[in-house]
Structures are given as structure tokens and as C-alpha cells.
Amino acid sequence: MLEADTLWKMGITGKNIKVAIFDTGLAASHSHFKNIKERINWTNENTQEDGLGHGTFVAGVIASSSNDCLGFAPDAELYIFRVFTNTQVSYTSWFLDAFNHAIFREVTVLNLSIGGPDFMDQPFVDKVWEVTANGIIMVSAIGNDGPLYGTLNNPADQMDVIGVGGINWDDQLARFSSRGMTTWELPHGYGRVKPDLVTYGSGVRGSALQNGCRPLSGTSVASPVVAGAVALLASAFVQTNESRLIKKKITPASMKQALLSSARRLPGIGMFEQGAGKLDLLRAFRFLESYTPVVTLYP
């Protein structure tokens, strides 16, 4: 998908990149994953296992090593943060604790295939700013409340987060994909452009709960496509030195600029529906190869 195999042939596979997945958990024994570094349950349930399959699927899109549904960055190091119960309950306090641990672990990429309409949850919003200020690239689903405008979710609507919308295999905007503009600024002015970009989110294959593969649709599917692509790109420009990652060109700002500057505009779709356009992995790679900090105006 998205010509990731071109980078794999160059030896770029996500190695040495820490990816945090905030979701419903993942079984340590799942055969698709070879590099699970840590699993932590932040909920009030006494289990680290995924009882719903959502977290397993998301992890698979990012880093599955199964040839039947290979993830974008199969050699990435996975940090599994279980922040949702099997009844899909979550609390801000669980996220705050998990965010703090992600900062402590110095993860490179953090995927949130979740979200909600409440951008007034100030402790959560502030913590997201803190996470990205610590150099963590946060990717989040824009939401599945389309086709109405202004239906996007938090934290995908925050400026420092890469908000991802969904398209189908015909490069048409998925009806379920939430639309911008952001509603923070209303009624005092126009909202900002969101999503930041779009990618495939309909009928994507990923890891099933009990091994095997299955298809799934939603922006919660599109988000790990981008997160996996980011992990893959990051691994091309990161080297190890005494077990610490040295980030040469990979920051939340540079990665977002690379993705948006290299995205391909889809015809007949507005900026509050597609943002900068469709993810183009190879163009983003070439952008980062010659990257120098520069001011850009978007959109």
C-alpha cells in the first residue's frame, strides 16, 4: 500500500522507532507482532488483553509482520497503552497518566484512533501540547461523523496533531469521514483547515483478534496508515548512539510539513474535506531527504 515496499527494499522498515498505540490493548502472544516492548493497562479492568479487536487491528496496520496483512513498519518497537475498556469506556485521567508514560519512554510516534467532540477538556488539551512539545509525533483520527462540516474530533483538531481523514480505494472521500473546519474559533471567526490530510480508510486489511486478517473501515483505520507511514519515514532518518535515538530531521513540525507539502490534492474535494490532500509516502520521503527548515503557508 502506498508503495511502502519501495522503502522496504532500501532497508527502511521502522527499526529503532518507538510507536505508542493508545487503544484497546493487544495480546502479547499474537503471532503478527515480533517487537512488543511494553504493554500497560491504564483502565480499571484487570487485563492487558484486547477484548474488542480494535487495538489489535490498529497495531497491525502499523507494524504487523504477517505477509497476509503486512504493516507499514514491521520492525518498529510497539508500546501498547490500553486506555479503553471492553465496554469502550475511558476517562481523561487514564489518558493523562498514559501520556506521561509515553513522554518518559521517549516514543517517536503516538497513534490515537479515537477522539471526541470536547475540545474544552483543558487538562487533556494541555497534555497533548506537552506531548508534542517533547518531540512526539501525534497522529489522530478526524472522526466518523461525516458528511456534515464541523464534525471533527479532538485531539485531531489541534494544530500540533496530524489529523487524518479517510478515502476509499477510488480516491473518493469516505462519507463517514468527519469534515472541518475547526470549531474552536467560532463564532468569532473562521475555523482552521482540518483534516490535515487523507488516506485509505475503507476496506483496509489488518490483524484480526485471533490471528489472521480482516478488513475494517473508518478514520480509526486511516490514522494508523499515516502513523505507520510516519514510523517508516522516521526510521530512514534516525540512527542509534548508545541506545539513544538521535533525531536528525524528525520532529512533529518537520514531519507534518513533509506530509502536507508532499500530499496530492484530490480533484473535486474541498480543503475542509481533504486538507492538503492524499498521503504520498515516497514524495514525503524525498521531501525529508533534502529537508531544511522553511516557513510555509498552509493551505
UniProtKB/TrEMBL annotation:
GO MF entry, a single one: serine-type endopeptidase activity
E.C. designation(s): 3.4.21.112
Pfam family, one: Peptidase_S8
GO biological process: cholesterol metabolic process; proteolysis
Reaction(s) catalysed (UniProt annotation): Processes precursors containing basic and hydrophobic/aliphatic residues at P4 and P2, respectively, with a relatively relaxed acceptance of amino acids at P1 and P3
Primary localization class, coarse: endoplasmic reticulum
Ranges of residues in domain Peptidase S8/S53: 14-277
Subcellular locations according to the entry: Endoplasmic reticulum membrane; Golgi apparatus membrane
Gene Ontology, cellular component aspect: endoplasmic reticulum membrane; Golgi membrane
Active site feature: 23, 54, 220
Keyword check for Phosphoprotein: yes
Cofactor(s) listed: Ca(2+)
Enzyme class name: hydrolase
Source organism superkingdom: Eukaryota
Key words, A-Z: Autocatalytic cleavage, Calcium, Cholesterol metabolism, Endoplasmic reticulum, Glycoprotein, Golgi apparatus, Hydrolase, Lipid metabolism, Membrane, Phosphoprotein, Protease, Serine protease, Signal, Steroid metabolism, Sterol metabolism, Transmembrane, Transmembrane helix, Zymogen
Membrane topology qualifier: Single-pass type I membrane protein; Single-pass membrane protein
InterPro entries the UniProt entry points to: Peptidase_S8/S53_dom, Peptidase_S8/S53_dom_sf, Peptidase_S8_His-AS, Peptidase_S8_Ser-AS, Peptidase_S8_subtilisin-like, Peptidase_S8_subtilisin-rel
Family named by the database record: Belongs to the peptidase S8 family.
Name of the protein in question: Membrane-bound transcription factor site-1 protease
